[in-house]
Each structure stands twice: as C-alpha cells, then as structure tokens.
Design goal:
single chain, 326 residues, alpha+beta, Peroxisomal Thiolase, Chain A, domain 1, four-stranded mixed sheet, 10 helices, 15 strands, 33% helix, binds acetyl coenzyme *A
C-alpha cells in the first residue's frame, strides 16, 4: 500500500545520564596539561555541558531507548513498525547495522532495517529516505533515528574538537498518511570537501588503520555550513511553495550557536524561532536534530499544524533540509 504523504506521529529522545559541564571538562583537561576555559567554549560555541555515555554503552542502546519513547508518544507497539533507519557515524559494529540491533532490542522483526551514514546531516538523509519509501509503498510506519556515541571518536588531547561534542539519540515515528506531513526534502553532498571534517580510520587485518579520531578544519566548516544551510533552506521552501514567513520553528543541526544564528540571519528567520539545545547537549551529530525536535515538542513549543524546518550539515561534506508540518 502506498500513501500520498508521511507524517511525524511521535517523537522521543534519550541522553546518557552523565552530564559533564564545561568547568568539569576544563579541570579534567588541565590535569593533563591541556588548556581551555569555560569562557572560550561558551563564547565560540554556546556549549555549556554535554552528556557522555559510560564506557560499554553502545549507540544501539541510546537509539533503542529514544525509539521506545517515540513509540509511546505515537501510541504504537514495536511490531507496528516495518522500517527502521538509524543515522549514525558511531555504530556498534562494522556490521550488522545499528538499525538491526535496535530492531532486535525492540522486538520488531521482519521489516527493513539499515543505517545511513551522512554524519551530522544523517537525520535529514534518513527522513528523506523514509518519506520516499513510505510514499512508494515500501513501508508504512518507520522509526527514523539519529544516534551517536561521538565521545568514542574524539581525541581527548585535541582541545579544538573534544570540547564540541556529546552523546545522545533522538527518534521519530514517521507514518503513511493522506494529509501532508513531510512537505519537502532536499539532500546534497560535495565530496571534494571530505578532508575538512573526518574520522579517517578503518579496521583492516585485525588492526585499526589510519587515524581513528575526528579531525576538523573549524573555520572552513563554519564558512561552508552557513552558506549551504541558506541555499538548501531556500530550495526546500520553494519546493513547498512557502517562504520563511511560513516557518514556525527552525531546527538547524546543533553544532554551534554561532553557525545557527548566522544561518538563521542569512535565511531570514527570527532568532526566537530557532530551537537551541546545543548549550545542554553539545554537538551530537546525527542525533542533534531529532533531540532538539523532541525537546521542543515535549515542552509545548512545537504544536500540531506548525511548520518546522530541519537542516543538517556535516562531514562528507553533506547537507540537507526537511520541511515538515507537525
Ligand atoms: N580552548 C581554548 N583555545 C582553543 C580551543 C579551546 N578548546 N580550541 C582551539 N583553540 C585555539 C586555537 O588553538 C587557536 O589558537 P591560536 O590562534 O593560538 O592558534 C584559536 O583558539 C583559534 O582557533 P580557531 O580554530 O581559528 O578558532 P575559531 O574562532 O574558528 O573557533 C570553532 C573554533 C569553534 C571550532 C569554530 O571554527 C567553529 O565554530 N567552526 C565550526 C565547526 C563546528 O562547529 N564544528 C562542529 C562539528 S562540524 C558539524 O557538526 C557540521
């Protein structure tokens, strides 16, 4: 059976319980001779704390908990789900996919399950794929998840990156419907910029080869992110026959408050309409958008019928926009 549209019918999220405030991280780094400060981190990024998973807690565990909460919100059982997509760059294993592990943990066998890898744009990619699959009849009710244990790929001796990221998961239930939910989706990549943000390691012959930690050219990422977020917002709005005035809430990838503010300004969206969670969650890569969405749905800011513009940008270089009516 195919549907004309797909709609978000439930959201959920999960953060590992351990929070690490900037001050605590600064002390921990200072003990190892690495100098940074709460002021530097807050001024450059807006980040005040991050959640970090305990050793041994896997990406699939965070994803499963976020999924349970999204299923509860949608009043569905795991067995109602026939598609699970996990956007992640920090999967449990090389294979099987994290989505298969989530499917097993939830007890939802039989439907399709796979991961998408588009780093911080992963959730927008996963949403676009799930929406397409629902509209073409390949699935009817999907769990679309962004989940990361980014702390595992951070070099805790590199102050330029280790202060920026956190762990967490967010999920939505996307269901076939005759009323519009996903109004437009646009995805892009430009592999020529692959080297400005990457974790260039792999497993080979029983060893880790290459560099298994995240590296980043911060200023290059900043510049590119702001310009592509502007362009892709305009594309998605044009596809839906809408303007920035129709956007009730803007949820950009939560990397850095300054990128989010610069992007909103360039697109022409008032700062009051920008959902910000990076101060509490830091950058959780593919999890950041569904985490922020769930926070704003549960605190009552995002209401049924409102238009939400979600935008991802990240390694690859990848970027995407998904415009939804809630
Ligand atoms: N504490 C103190 N000083 C630091 C720290 C730190 N944690 N990190 C870097 N510095 C120093 C650098 O060593 C450098 O010192 P120097 O001038 O003596 O060499 C100085 O701060 C400036 O470094 P820059 O990298 O030029 O700092 P910038 O002002 O560009 O800010 C930042 C860095 C916040 C990363 C910025 O480039 C940025 O926001 N980039 C966007 C990238 C981003 O947010 N990435 C997140 C992941 S990407 C994504 O999700 C899309």
């Amino acid at each position: 059976m195919s549907f004309r549209h797909s709609r978000i019918i439930g959201t959920g999220s999960y953060l590992p319980p351990r929070t690490v405030a900037n001050e605590a991280l600064v002390r921990e780094l200072a003990a190892r001779g690495i100098e940074t400060s709460d002021e530097w981190i807050v001024e450059r990024t807006g980040i005040r704390q991050r959640h970090l998973a305990e050793p041994g807690v896997a990406c699939s565990e965070l994803a499963t908990e976020a999924s349970r909460r999204a299923l509860d919100a949608a009043a569905l059982q795991p067995t109602d789900i026939d598609l699970i997509i996990v956007a992640t760059s920090t999967p449990d294993y090389v294979f099987p996919s994290t989505a298969c592990l989530v499917q097993k943990a939830l007890g939802a066998p039989g439907g399709a399950a796979f991961d998408v890898q588009a780093v911080c744009s992963g959730f927008t990619y996963a949403m676009a794929v799930a929406d397409s699959m629902i509209r073409t009849g390949l699935a009817s009710r999907a769990l679309v998840i962004g989940a990361e244990v980014f702390s595992r790929i951070l070099d805790w001796n590199d102050r330029g990156t280790c202060v920026l990221f956190g762990d967490g998961a967010g999920a939505v239930v996307l269901a076939g419907d005759e009323r519009p939910g996903v109004l437009a989706a646009r995805l892009h990549a430009d592999g020529r910029h692959e080297s400005i943000l990457r974790t260039a390691g792999n497993v080979c012959g029983g060893k880790v080869l290459g560099h298994p930690y995240l590296t980043m050219d911060g200023p290059a990422v900043f510049k590119l992110a702001v310009s592509v977020l502007d362009a892709v917002a305009r594309e998605a709005l044009a596809d839906a026959g809408m303007t920035t005035a129709d956007v009730d809430w803007f949820i950009p990838h939560q990397a850095n408050v300054r990128i989010m503010q610069a992007a909103a300004k360039r697109i022409g969206i008032a700062l009051e309409k920008v959902v910000v969670t990076v101060d509490r969650h830091a950058n959780t890569s593919a999890a950041s958008i569904p985490l922020a969405l769930d926070v704003a749905v549960r605190d009552g800011r995002i209401r049924p019928g409102q238009n939400v513009l979600m935008e991802g940008v990240g390694g690859g270089f990848t970027w995407g926009a998904v415009l939804v009516r809630m």
